[in-house]
Structures are given as C-alpha cells and as structure tokens.
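Worked example

This section walks through a single chain of length 648. The input is the sequence exactly as stored; nothing has been trimmed or padded.
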Amino acid sequence: MGLLALLIAMEMGTLAFTMNILSAARAYVGGEGLWSKAQKDAVFEMQNYVATRNPKFYRAYLDQLKVPLGDRQARLEMSKVDMNPKVVTEGFLNGKIHAHDIPSMINLMRRFHDVKYLATVIGVWNQADDMLDQLIKVGDQIHTQIAVKGKASNSYEIRQLMNQLDRINSGLTGLEDQFSYKFGEASRWLEDILLIILLVTVLIVESTGLFLTVRFTRGLTRALSEVNTAAVEVSQGKFTTTVPVRSRDELGQLAEALNKMTESLRTSKGEQAHAEEASQIKNLFLANMSHEIRTPLSAILGFVELLKDPHVSEAERLQFLEIVERTGNSLATVLNDILDISKVEAGKLEVNRVTCQLPKLLADLQLLLQLRCESKGIYLQFKPVGYVPEWIYTDPMRLRQILLNMIGNAIKFTYRGGVAVSYSATQDSLEFSIVDTGIGIPAESMNKLFVPFSQGDLSIRKVHGGTGLGLSLSRRLAQLLGGDIVLDSSKVNVGSSFRVKVALDQAKASTSNLSEISSRASAVTGDMKLDKKRILLVDDSTDIQLLIRLFLSKSGANVDIASNGLEGVNRALEEKFDVVIMDMQMPVMDGYTATEKLRQKGYLSPIIGLTAHAMREDLAKCMQVGCNDVLTKPVNRGQLIDFVQKYC
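Given that input, the structure is written out below as tokens.
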C-alpha cells in the first residue's frame, strides 16, 4: 500500500502541475479579456468626458487604465533576473487577476518564457504596452485641451485627437486578438507535453493499482461473504453467530454492528416477534448494502482492467468512464434518498410553501424527462384536465421531487407506448394521474410498493436498478404537503396508474399572485419609479451588471458598478448612494464580508443581498451580516424595482 500511495502521489503531483500550468494559461487569457475590456471602457469614458466635460468621466478613464498598467508592471518585473514577487502580485491585482491565479501565472512565465510560443506572446504583449503609452499620451492631450485650456480649447484639435484615440483603440484590439490566438497555440503545446507525461504516470499507477486491487478484492469478498453468511444464520434464529472483525474500516465497523445486534437479539429472544422483525430489517439492510457495494466495485474493477489495455479506443475509454460516472451518480441518489427519508422519519424535514407558477414547473419537468423518453423511443404527455390555476401555493422543490420520482419510475419500467400525465385542481388540492404502458406490478407485490428498500422481486433490481426508496420517499413527501400517493390500478405487461395528490391554499396563492402581477405590470409599463435615484450594484458578472443596470435605468435610476466586494466597500464609503445591491458570491471579497465591513464602519444606507442560493439558511445568513432584504436569482424585474423603490 505504501508503494501505491507513493505512485499515486507522483500521479497527483504530475496532475497538479499540469492543472497549475493550464490554469495559469486560462488566467492569462482571462486577464487579456479584462485588459481589453478596461481599455475599451477607458476609451468609452474619455468619449463621455469629451461629450460632457464632466471630470468624473476623466477619473473613470484613469481608473480603467489601472488594469492594463497593472499588467504591464507585472510583465516588466517578471522579466527581471531578481524578480520581486510582491511587485508582480501588486501589478496583477491592479489588473483584476484573482490572487489564487497569480503564483501559477508567475510560474508559467518564469519557466517557459524562452519557449518560442510564449516568446511570441510576450512580444505581442510588449507591442500592446507601447501602443497603450500612445493612448495615454493622447488622453493627456485631450485632458489638457478640456481641463487646462477650458473655453479656449480647440474643438477641431480635440476631434483630431479623438480620431487618433479610436485608431489606437482599433490597433490594440488587433493585438489583443493576436495575444489570445498565440497564447492558445502555447497552451496546446504545453497540454500535449504534459499529457504525455501524465499518461506515462497513469499507466504505471494503474498497473500497480490493478495488482493491489485484485488482492484487496479477495479480502473484501471474503469479508462480505462472512457478513452475508452471518446475516442469513441470524435471520434463521442462530443468535450465537458472530462475524470476525478483521479491520477497523467500514466493513470492520459493519461486522461489529452486526455482532452487537446479534448479542442484543440473543439477550431478548423472549420477545420473539420483536426479534424476528429486527432480524428481517437487518437482513434486508445488509443485503441491500452488500448489493450496492458489490455492483459498483465489480464495474470499477472490470473497467479499470479494460482501460489498462493500450488498444482501447478514445470512444471506448469515454464510454467506460461514463459507466463509472453513472455508477457514482446512482450511489449519490441512494445517499440523498436515505438522508431525506431519515429526516422524514425523524420529523426534521421542513417544507417551504411559497407561491409558484405551475405551468413553468411542469414545463421544466417535461423538458428534463423528455430526453429519457426519446432515448427509449416512448412518448411523454402532459395534459391539464379542466381548469388548472397558473399560480399555486405549495413547496415547489418537494412537489418537483415527488413528480420527478413518480414519472421517472414510470419511464424506467416502460419500454413501449409511453407515459401520460394528466392533472387537475380544486380549491383545496392539486391532483396528478400518472399512467404508463409498462411492465405492471404483480398482485402479490402491491402491498410492498411503499416499503423502503422493497421491490417486486430480485430480478427487478437486476434488470432495472434502484433501491426501492423512491416510492416510499415520494409518499412521505406528499403526506407532508397534505396529500398522498396511491396505486389506482396495475396489470402485468399492460401498465400501471398512480395518483398523486397535494394540498393547495388558493387564497394565499391568489393574494401573492396579485402582488406578483402588480410587480410585473409595473415593470412592463417602464414608469420612472426610481427617477434620479442613485444605485450601487456590486456584482462580478458583466452579464448581470448589464441586465440589472438596464432594468433600473429604464425606471429612471442612475446605476454605478463595482466588480467585487472590496471595490463595492470603497465606493459605498466614498460616495452617496440611495441603495446598494450586493451579490454574495464574488472574487477578491465576497458579499457577506463586504456587507459586514460596511455595517461595522457605520454604513446606514439600505443593502439588498443578491444570491443564487435560495435555501432558507442561505437567506438567513444574508440577513445576519446586515442586509435589509434579499433577492434571489434569476432576478425578476418587477420585484427588483419594487425592492429598490421600497428601500429608497
């Protein structure tokens, strides 16, 4: 095992070095994008300065130039023999490079700067810096005309300078494209070299690992055989049976647990009924766990052996890896279902009822499940029966989980025809009928449908997979939502029909819906509800920045942008804003830390949190650090404007 650990460490070291270098290449290309954006934004701010003569645009122009100037500082320092890492780091940080990427970027440039590809890239970078000097020089001349000469400035000369600025801007854009292209060539060269090294290391590790795995498998098979044998004997009433504890790992702990169970049953065999029930539950649990361990283990060992074959094609290798990935996802599903059903049993699973759009929920679900049906050549239909409200009041996440389990189950057991889902509503409930043309359920198996870890018989698990938790969990969730799940009918080789019912509160849905419709209508009209209000948006995503700026600007607001929490804190303390909208997950400084720092410094203006995490504990965390309210992504325009107006 020590040898294998050493070989794996070598492989991981090679992989880490590979990832480090490729990550650095990605960071350089990303940095070029930031460089390019900052340069174009600087030109844009200069255009605003010329048009308005407002000094704030000139200050914004200078701020944008900090990005390419920071990158230049880093490049010049890295070219020195006695490089100062602090100077390089300071430069890259000014260039908005993430701090975690900087060491790998320095490593890449220092190790490979003499390689032909990177030497070409550095040359292009140098040309871009020279052209940047020209841009700065022209910008200074324009500023002199406007700020120094004032009314005596020469409009014709300013236009000529602006034309010169545009030409420099176009030239820089060409160099930026050339930088990205050349860096792509360098990255591919590095990738090929590192991939060869990694493949050699992987072959050595897998050859050794295969040998050790065979030995490990024999020991594992023996331990599982002992556990299964003991479980069978205990189920037959032989409470003197014990399992040898050969290790302190999970199997050893399982053996100890079985021995403790056996001892407990032996001391209480006067309660015969209780002992039999406990034995059955234990036997069922052990059989399921044994199956869930053996199946992925067999797949992994088999496909590792196949992957060792040097003649395996790339397509086959990807197919084998997909099988391993599917096996892992299956185990993850089992764990999630066990956790959920355990929470239900313990009474700790909470439901979060809110107003949601039923058509949108069902459309998303149909789109997801349609792919499974198409791969099997069967149909999937969703059909409303009678009047069905657009807005409902329930827990949308749990309702989606129930329907995904039930409809997914129907698809799994259907090989011809298809699955039809019809739904209807009353004032108090929402009901779904799920009818399939699948294999059906034998009469003798119907009483075990909603029992955890139960399936019709062992052949079902072998052919179709699964652990028998889906129906049981779905029924418990439906009951938590004030409803139930029942089997209406089933016939072998004809199909089955299930009915899912959950409670509704249409009065609450209607009330919430009116508010939602009002918000949307207000947003559509585009009235100037936020006329001249000044908003600071702190978000690292340029797409979100553009979207929210458009939403708020169309309602009359003036929107300033900060790209990370640190920049947002500085802007909020330096300038006056009516409302701050703070994204929670950002580089440099996240929104939680930024909000907390603002409140610690006595900042009193409203802060609205913005997050893609919609769990109750995530929203509570936003409020704890000092947010006045929280908006969740995706952002609703009407709700956004109403929130901002409320806190203005």
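What to look for: The chain has a mean pLDDT of 79.
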